[in-house]
Amino acid sequence: MTKIAEKATQLLSLENKVALVSGGASGIGRGIATRLAELGAAVMILDMNVEGGEQTSAAIVRQGGRARFHKCDVRSSRDCKDAVAGALNGFGRIDILCNNAGVIIRKNIVELEEHEWDLALDVTLKGIFLLSREAIPPMIKQGGGVIVNTGSGWSLKGGPQAASYCAAKAGVMNLTRAMAIDHGKHNIRVNCVCPGDVDTPMLQSECEQLGEDRATFLREAASRPLGRIGTLDDVANAVLFLVSEMAQWITGACLLVDGGGLA
């Protein structure tokens, strides 16, 4: 191995690291969990989707990685406490927390039911609070860690028929900044990755909720400078960068990964 390759491996390696990924049963969460495991991290996958979570975990293990699935509703303080305890009992530490769980409901304020607003805000925003509240103390005890919260392009601007989602994701971005300020002294970096439209089951759900033609919906979603919608790898690679040694002086930042959609 050349010196350049050795340095690259050192900067990106997650060997001996332990990561928690919420919403890891499908979509962006699955992509993140898989990529972190490929670079050496042991991954605890958290989700309400038992079948999908177990499939993600099994796929990682088949590829030679280390992974476990833990059923977790991030709206529940008890579930979050149990998930963190399970990671500590199973892997001994927590180095990385990826708060990725989220819900999108494509309705405006007038159309939204109160329970739909609560669902979107509780999963997408409150879940970060509850899971981080449990994961940060062991990170402090061990001398540091990294948190990456999944925001959205709509963390930075509004979007149509997505009032609760826009509110939640804007909250994610500013919560990220507040957490970075509070816990920098503990050697805990906190950043936010903000994807644009990515080819996931959630994107398909949006199309169905809006009652739009799939081909037209995807064509419009790809209308951005780089001329395509995002892939799981696009977002997973950005998260990898933020949790790696390459980003060791980056905290409180928002990394937009959207093919130039907000340019």
In short:
This protein is of the alpha/beta class. It is built from 9 helices and 7 strands. The protein has a single domain, classed as Rossmann fold.
What tags apply to this protein structure?
seven-stranded parallel beta sheet, Rossmann fold, 263 residues, alpha/beta, 7 strands, globular
Task: Please explain how this structure is put together.
- With 263 residues, the chain is an alpha/beta fold.
- It has a single domain (11-197, 232-256), classed as NAD(P)-binding Rossmann-like Domain (Rossmann fold, 3-Layer(aba) Sandwich), CATH 3.40.50.720.
- The chain is 49% helix and 15% strand.
- The chain contains nine helices and seven strands; from the N terminus they run H-E-H-E-H-E-H-E-H-E-H-E-H-H-H-E.
- A seven-stranded parallel beta sheet has the order 3-2-1-4-5-6-7, sandwiched between helices.
- Helix 6 (163-183) links the parallel strand 5 (145-150) and strand 6 (188-195).
